[in-house]
Design a protein that fits this description.
The complex is a heterodimer of chains A (490) and B (215). Chain A has 490 residues and is α+β, with helices and mostly antiparallel strands. Helix content of chain A is 22%, strand content 32%. Classes of the chains: A alpha+beta (490), B mainly beta (215).
């Protein structure tokens, strides 16, 4: 074969190859001319994407088509549709650079229901959005649609993280404390801030790990140890002001004003007076927390008691934890960056306690039975009420009247009433628990009710007459019995 | 002034027209729901309970013997919390809660002469039984009940005309012939014995407002 023949064959081959891969095509999109180009490369199936995915309702979205078949056109189009509302918009995408085959465009969305305008797509949380790109020349030589689907989420709101729970502090040594808390699952939380100090809600402490507030950790962090905490300086405690006593039945209610620097109070009491140099130890003084009232109980009515209150201060550290979205940023508890303070935890750092004094003489008062106003009389008749089932039953009222007129007017009667009021409720409770006995009790009470009714509802003359009749009848019956015993006839 | 008083008296005097004389839509029952202030008839009440009055809430149901005369039962609830007294120390102390439930059986005359009468005066009274409970915190409680009497008078305003559709619906759906707003004054006397052999009136004066539904 001559060289010329060989070159001719090569030329023919090249021509055929060029014809095979280079062709001019026309693509119509939605009935209109979408593109007309000469394909100079191997055919490729295009792709379409939505960003961001999921779509945030109300935020703009970016649509991107990537198709190497389209290098020579400036724009292409896609159709975006909200399947929930049916709203459909055709969006024109622009090639990002000559010959790149990558086309992008943006579309505004609105966080709204219904169908929006021709340039704004209405979407809401839970909707689904589909973007469709018509690829005129896919890799298999056919044309067809390429789609991408994205869900819609609600826009993020600026919320405060929830309050940290389960905060506890554990004493390690006189300068170290370990804090524990529950993991906080609020959205956006990346760590925690630890507030600490030597007074409640006054977080100005320092430690080897840093000063308060101390930011650290990640969402899963649930413990932190603080070391080299300076020993709390115990304050000089003033006299507790406004100590007031209120008498109660076998008790005294004590109240006072809060004292600056106090972490608790100590209540001294005695039946004899005392001063600051002879504080009573019997009864043992009562230590209470950071409160301003306490009730002394178990006291004897009618006996004067002397009471004094002193403030005490323990070397205590107080701690609170917040969950933070950005624990490095300066923010206040309860802001959008940081949760509110947790419940406060505290730890006593050593056994040294500061105690204030009081100004003698101590306050005094007599515990006693309190009298209500108006001082109403108890009309409860426990067993009879239980037996007859109703407080205002006439039979119960009869017994009540009998009590008032014949029992409460004399010492033995009052003693009986007192005894009955002590044990009567137990009997009534038994009857209510065992109602089967109620008819028996009603029957047993009947003679008493009849006698009571007779006594309270008849004039004195009738009572005397009936009494004389009973005496005469009794005497007659006794005499008759004696005669029978002595052999007499009936 | 005399004319007004005479007119008021005349309005209060019921004309005992038989129910049969009224049309079939005349109501047979009344239901009152009311609330207001109760001023105890006890000297020094405010010294122990902080103010001269306390709340009272209650209701009444009654049957119309005639269009202008009805007999019924009324009950209300009154409670107040205050202090007791420590006699040895001579100071107020403790926490005392006094509750009462006055139950009244009453006869009431309403000055209604035609069904669409806008203003209807009424007056009534009857027997009272007042149940009481009194608790001294951490100490104990007493209870009892006493008899007494009650009288009350007031003025009711017909509400049917405000929303005729609503009033017709009430009539159709629930049988409510008429709805009224009313304001009344009530005096209760119920003498109870005290633990110190004295007595005290558990009643007092009430100023109440509420709604009356006639069925």
């Amino acid at each position: 074969m001559k060289l010329t023949h060989l070159l001719s064959l090569i030329g023919v081959f090249l021509v055929l190859l060029t014809v095979a891969v280079t062709q001019e095509i026309t693509v119509k999109h939605n009935g209109t001319l979408a593109m007309k180009t000469r394909l100079a490369f191997a055919q490729v199936t295009g792709t379409v994407t939505i960003s961001p995915s999921p779509i945030v309702a109300g935020q703009p979205i970016t649509l991107t088509v990537s198709d190497a078949d389209l290098i020579s056109v400036a724009t292409t189009t896609v159709t975006i549709q909200n399947s929930a509302t049916g709203q459909s918009i055709v969006v024109t995408l622009t090639q990002t650079g000559a010959g790149t085959g990558v086309f992008t465009g943006t579309l505004s969305t609105a966080n709204a229901t219904g169908v929006g305008t021709s340039t704004v797509l209405n979407v809401q949380d839970g909707n689904s959005v589909t973007v469709t790109y018509i690829d005129a020349l896919k890799i298999d030589g056919t044309s067809g649609s390429v789609t991408a689907v994205a869900s819609v989420t609600a826009p993020a709101t600026a919320t405060t993280p929830t309050t940290v729970t389960g905060v506890t502090s554990t004493f390690l040594n006189s300068s170290s404390v370990r804090l524990n808390w529950d993991k906080n699952s609020s959205a956006g939380v990346t760590g925690y801030k630890l507030y600490f100090g030597t007074a409640s809600r006054l977080y100005n402490g320092t430690s080897a790990e840093g000063a308060s507030p101390l930011g650290f950790g990640n969402r899963s962090t649930t413990t932190k140890t603080l070391t080299h905490l300076p020993a709390p300086v115990l304050p000089s405690l003033p006299v507790v002001a406004n100590v007031a006593l209120a008498p109660q039945n076998q008790a005294i209610a004590v109240s006072w004003s809060a004292t600056a620097g106090a972490t608790g109070y100590k209540i001294y009491y005695s039946t004899t007076s005392f001063d600051s140099g002879t504080l009573p130890t019997n009864p043992v003084p009562i230590t209470v927390g950071n409160t301003t009232s306490y009730t002394l109980t178990g006291l004897t009515n009618g006996t004067r008691y002397y009471v004094a209150v002193t403030a005490i201060a323990e070397p205590r550290y107080y701690f609170a934890v917040t969950a933070a979205k950005d624990f490095t940023a300066a923010s206040n508890p309860g802001s959008t960056n940081e949760s509110a303070y947790s419940a406060e935890a505290s730890t006593v750092m050593n056994s040294t306690i500061a105690e204030g004094t009081f100004t003698p003489p101590p306050a005094s008062i007599i515990p006693e039975v309190i009298v209500a106003f108006p001082n109403l009389k108890n009309e409860g008749c426990f067993i009879a009420t239980a037996a007859f089932g109703f407080y205002s039953a006439p039979q119960v009222q009869v017994l009540r009247d009998f009590r008032d007129r014949y029992l409460l007017t004399n010492a033995p009667g009052r003693a009986f009433v007192a005894w009955y009021y002590h044990y009567g409720p137990q009997g009534a409770h038994f009857l209510n628990q065992h109602p089967i006995f109620k008819p028996v009790v009603r029957l047993a009470l009947l003679p008493l009710i009849v006698v009571a009714l007779f006594l309270i509802s008849t004039p004195v003359a009738v009572k005397i007459l009936v009494m004389l009749s009973m005496i005469i009848t009794s005497a007659f019956l006794v005499r008759r019995r004696i005669l029978l015993c002595n052999g007499g006839v009936q | 002034m005399k004319t007004l008083i005479l007119l008021a008296v005349l309005l209060c005097v019921p004309t005992f027209v038989s129910a049969a004389a009224w049309d079939n839509d005349s109501p047979n029952w009344s239901l009152e729901l009311k609330g207001g202030l109760f001023y105890p008839d006890v000297t020094d009440w405010s010294k122990y309970y902080g103010k001269k009055f306390t709340g009272e809430y209650g209701g009444a149901v009654s049957y119309k013997l005639f269009r202008q005369l009805e007999v019924g039962v009324e009950a209300s609830y009154i409670t107040a919390t205050g202090s007791g007294v420590a006699p040895l120390n001579g100071v107020l102390s403790g926490e005392v809660t006094t509750q009462r439930v006055p139950v009244n059986v009453f006869l009431l005359a309403r000055g209604v002469f035609y069904e669409k009468q806008l203003l209807v005066p009424y007056v009534g009274g009857g027997w009272n039984r007042t149940f009481y409970w009194q608790e001294i915190k951490h100490q104990g409680k007493v209870n009892g009940s006493v008899n007494g009497y009650v009288g009350r008078a007031g003025l009711q305003v017909l509400l049917d005309g405000i929303d005729t559709d609503a009033s017709e619906s009430l009539n159709t759906d629930y049988g409510v012939r008429h709805s009224y707003f009313f304001a009344e004054g009530k005096y209760t006397n119920a003498m109870a014995s005290t633990a110190t052999s004295g007595s005290v009136n558990l009643g007092g004066t009430s100023w109440l407002g509420g709604f009356l539904f006639e069925f």
